[in-house]
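worker-03 picked up job from queue 'complexes'. Input manifest follows; three sequence lines, order preserved.
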Amino acid sequence: MPELPEVETVKNTLKKLVLNKKINEVKVLYPNMIEFPSVEEFIKELQGKTILDIKRRGKWLLFEFDNKYLISHLRMEGKYFIHEHSEPIGKHDHVIFFFTDNELRYQDTRKFGRMYLIDKDKLEDSKPICALGLEPWDKALTKEYLKGKYKHKKLPIKTVLLDQSIITGIGNIYADEILFLSKLDPLKPCYELNDTNLEDIIKYTREVLEHAIKLGGTTIKSYESAKGVHGLFQNELLVHSNAGELCKSCGTEIIKIRVGGRGTYYCPTCQK
DNA sequence: CAGGTCTCCTGCTAGC
DNA sequence: TGCTAGCAGGAGACCT
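worker-03 finished. Artifact:
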């Protein structure tokens, strides 16, 4: 499941592969993937356009064109692969961007991914980008900012870490890791967090994500940044997906619970 | 307004 | 062995 570090890795991989390439043609094989505008307009607008840059905002991938951004969310299993024209179309290839020498295919087993084509000057004011909160490294991300957001919230901290309108980019894997390092019970209500807790959340959010980016993200299930390229952060996971294993800090068994409908892994001894 | 629930999808797995 | 019910999950829609 691509979170910020995986999207960052995909962005860097794609920049090496498709920057400055001109799209001759677009094929949309699964129309629901295109959230806005209509599929017809999406195809027409992209035809003949050159990919000027690729950026990232939260978990969104931003392909920059002269007057538009194609923004793409990979959700659970979305992947971009370069293929030769001759390669047969796969069962899960849903959108294809044709270049002269090869093509970029968006593959998504679960079809959860979504794409938008937005006017460049309206990007920050249009959904979904307008609903995003601060990037983890934004200087505005301070304990005062979090205090303001968390003050009246009774929801568990785990749930709120996944709220993209506060800090953007954290998903289920990294939320568990951040809470483990912050020694916080995932079920702890937001408003109960003290200054130290908030400082720890900010510190470890940045540390965990930076470390994961360095290692090319986490490969659980089927994430790849390019064909056969897997991240390495899964070897560094302290709690996530480690139910039954022993806590590296205290030796207690890591347990799995559900918080806000999400599988959540934590050490009941270290995290209070 | 905050928060809960449903929805979208398919592959995998537990259980019979 | 083969089948199926149930689960997994990011974020928007919808409801309370």
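worker-03 released lock.
The two ends of chain A are 27 Å apart (CA to CA).
Residues 195-214 of chain A form the longest helix (20 residues).
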